[in-house]
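Action item from last week, closing it out:
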Amino acid sequence: MLIYGIGYLPIILGISLECPLGYFAATLFSWIYTVEFFINAFCRQENAVSYILLFMSVLPEIVCFVILSVGLPLQLGISLQKRFKCRSKTTSNISENEVCYKSMENSFQWTYVKNLLRKSHEPLTNKHFHQKGVEKLKSLMQCLLYVRSDDFRLSARMVSIITVGLIITYKITFIVTTNVYDMTRFFQENIICQFAEIGIDVQSTDTDAIIALRKLLFIAYKFVINFKECFLMTMVTCFVLNLIFLNQALITYRNNLLSLYKGISPKHLTSKEETSNPRLMCGSIRYAGYQVGHIGGGFTIQCFTTIINSSVVAMVVALWEYFGKYLQDKFQDIMIILYTAIIVNVIQFLLSKFVFLQEKGNLLAIESRRLFFLFTYFMFFYYIFIAIFHSILRILASVIFGTFLLPRIDYSVLPRKCQIIDLGFFAYCGFLHLESSHTNPIAMVFISILQAESQRSRTERKHYEKGYGTCLEWGSTEDRKKIDRKRRKAKLYWGLAFTLVKNPSLLHLRINS
């Protein structure tokens, strides 16, 4: 923990200072680390390694070091430019509250508040056909892919977590794929050497042992070829699915955080009332490590599962010549049971809608009680045997979905009342609650307005005390104070009314409710 933390601590501290000196120190350290990395990666390789494979194995590190080596000097230049601009603004007539308002209007929190107070969009019924299609396509893209919006920004911590998870997924995919490919090529070459010794074609001088060995070698060769093809296909599928899951994790994070901003806690999350604030804080501390560890561990388990499944499929294909008839018969028996279950379910649904329920299923009231209980009596014995197969399918489904959803801790694999045992999911809930408490756009905009107004009142007070009389153009000081007080009250009441209309869950939190 200390070794990994202290190694890159100078860069992190330099970036967090957000000053030219900090960016300068971070730039120097990033350049030193980059040179050291390239020397160790490409100049000190003792074994003869393909440079293409070597480049592919260290591609994430190269991208990260290049971004640091180029991005930090740019940030240094931007910080110096901002410093000179701030010095020039102190000599100009621009007030501090105007600077605060301009910086606030350029933020995504301000855009969020404006969108919150904006009128709702007109329904799709008032739009043309092509406009409806565009709206539906946009909504579909927002459900499938994370699309950047002007009123929301991902936190730096979340971006870092997903980036590290993506790097770990790539590294595991590359290491497992190259090792398995080398292993299959080794076995394939050995089998070919065995064929070269005993011959591929059957000869009259062959003994029974050589004939049996030749059959085993044919089966082993088919197994290796089929295993390699199945493994590469399933490995690529797992990698793509994990990329989709990481993208969906960002979408889920944004939707959950926006719901918490509005005071609506999603049903599948652990609410604040169910736990304590210290536990939520501990969960937020654990979240980054838990999420990256679950991504790496979950994807590793998926890789082992992929190897096992590929071995089974390759073995079935290799032995299909010997056990194909038997497997076909068993598959037909299973399909008969499946067809029977489908037909029974269709008949059961039709009887429930048109015979057992009143008004063709529109009312949940029994029409023919005797017929209903007689049918239920015979179905009781049928579903006892069906439930035995269904329990096996249920275990398989839970294992499959649990394996693929293991990298995502934004969903718990346990029931609602047992989610507190799932430490990864509880850490995610703590992280979300802490983020919503400290990054709520409404609170941030409100605090920024208070700061700007306090600076404005402080500046006006200084001008008035010096005798500049900036308030004379409004009349007397008392008249201007009355006008400002009335306008401020009107704005507050209108803002309160609009906020309560847009957020009905806040009504019961008011004192006068």
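Closing note: Confidence is low (pLDDT under 50) at residues 468-475.
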